[in-house]
């Protein structure tokens, strides 16, 4: 059933263009308006939401971090993200006008399940973003947006993550549409950009040999850092988590803007540092990340830079450049995560580890 692949994870990485396309399928019309027939919350209920709290564990929580940037930008509804395991133990302030969004591939994660039970007891509406039809979390939620990734067998989430991102974008745009926010004009343009993502992922996968080669070359290192800013920050966290899970290595993700507040002290000659560069835009994010790359390069780090095609500004400071197809900043994580998945899988396999069943981990964590 691995379809000729050595590992399910590799098959699932390659299934991502289709999985993302399937998750977007039928969720917008030809004019770029969102259509969510399955949404069981009325427009009135959604218009009454004054706060969104997104919860999830591990990779799902990183999808939630990306979603926060997108949903706040498009809807202007204040949005918090929290690890599901932390949520209920701090007596969170949630109530009737709070929408809790629970993200879970399996739909069975105990931390997330307990968190939504708590939220519903407080009177909040819960919307699940889930990949498993009929699982417990969507059954106990008020509404659900299913991701259409198909079964994810490998413990390390790949297509689960990308389709969670796609579903979060759909949710954010749908909320913006229902509420008629000032970013309404961006909706159809963003839907058109979402449609391009499957091809963008395909392009990255076609170029993945270079990433695999890099993984084999770096297989002797014990520590890896990942830096990103804005939506690139959760991508950095995800890149580090993949490497921890699969290769049992010390890997850390940082917000690039935090470098000077501590992490730069650990930079030493030869240390591999992956950096996700945001597309050039009107804000100064891009220049700031480029200057971070200069700073770590000046301290001898080996820089692996993920950057949009056509952007050569980082070339002088990059030991390795991984080019990403063009996408708006908010959607870039769908592309930037892919080389990091490929890298972690290849490095783990170079080290002789079980890529699908890493030690100490289970696919769905049904105890708190
Ligand atoms: O099934 P869930 O999405 O609720 O699972 C959440 C995490 O346990 C999961 O994402 C975990 O972090 C993965 N092993 C990441 O690759």
UniProtKB/TrEMBL annotation:
Keywords: Aminotransferase, Cytoplasm, Glutamine amidotransferase, Repeat, Transferase
Signal peptide start and end residues: none
Catalytic activity: D-fructose 6-phosphate + L-glutamine = D-glucosamine 6-phosphate + L-glutamate
GO biological process, one term: fructose 6-phosphate metabolic process
GO molecular function: carbohydrate derivative binding; glutamine-fructose-6-phosphate transaminase (isomerizing) activity
Residue ranges occupied by any SIS domain in the UniProt entry: 42-181, 214-358
UniProt GO cellular component terms: cytosol
EC numbers: 2.6.1.16
Location(s) in or outside the cell: Cytoplasm
Active site: 363 (for fru-6p isomerization activity)
Quaternary data: Homodimer.
Function: Catalyzes the first step in hexosamine metabolism, converting fructose-6P into glucosamine-6P using glutamine as a nitrogen source.
Protein's UniProt name: Glutamine--fructose-6-phosphate aminotransferase [isomerizing]
Part of the intact protein present: 248 to 615 of 615
């Amino acid at each position: 059933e691995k379809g000729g692949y050595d590992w399910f994870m590799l098959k699932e990485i390659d299934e991502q263009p289709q999985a993302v396309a399937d998750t977007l399928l039928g969720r917008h019309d030809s004019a770029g308006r969102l259509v969510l027939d399955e949404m069981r919350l009325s427009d009135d209920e959604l218009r009454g939401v004054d706060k969104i709290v997104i919860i999830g564990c591990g990779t799902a929580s990183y999808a939630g971090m990306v979603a926060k940037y997108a949903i706040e930008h498009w809807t202007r509804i204040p949005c918090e993200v929290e690890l599901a395991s932390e949520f209920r133990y701090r007596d969170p302030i949630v109530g009737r006008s709070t929408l809790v969004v629970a993200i879970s591939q399996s739909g069975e994660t105990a931390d997330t399940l307990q968190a939504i039970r708590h939220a519903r007891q407080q009177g909040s509406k819960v919307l699940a973003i889930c990949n498993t039809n009929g699982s417990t979390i969507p059954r106990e939620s008020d509404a659900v947006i299913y991701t259409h990734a198909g079964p994810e067998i490998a413990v390390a989430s790949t297509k689960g993550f990308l389709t969670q991102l796609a579903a979060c974008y759909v949710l954010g745009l749908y909320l913006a549409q229902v509420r008629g926010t000032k970013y309404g004009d961006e909706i159809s343009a963003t839907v058109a950009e979402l449609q391009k993502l499957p091809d963008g992922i395909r392009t990255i996968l076609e170029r993945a040999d270079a990433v695999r080669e890099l993984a084999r070359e770096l297989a002797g290192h014990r520590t890896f850092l990942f830096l990103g800013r804005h939506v690139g920050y959760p991508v950095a966290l995800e890149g580090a988590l993949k490497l921890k899970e699969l290769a049992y290595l010390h890997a850390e993700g940082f917000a690039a803007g935090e470098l000077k507040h501590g992490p730069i002290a650990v930079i030493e000659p030869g240390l591999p540092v992956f950096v996700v560069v945001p597309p050039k835009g009107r804000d100064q994010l891009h220049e700031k990340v480029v200057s971070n790359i200069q700073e770590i390069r000046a301290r001898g780090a080996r820089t692996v830079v993920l950057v949009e095609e056509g952007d050569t500004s980082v070339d002088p400071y990059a030991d390795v450049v991984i080019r990403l197809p063009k996408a708006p900043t908010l959607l870039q994580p769908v592309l930037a995560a892919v080389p990091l998945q490929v890298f972690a899988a290849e490095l783990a396999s170079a080290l002789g580890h079980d890529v699908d069943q890493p030690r100490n981990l289970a696919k769905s964590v049904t105890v708190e």
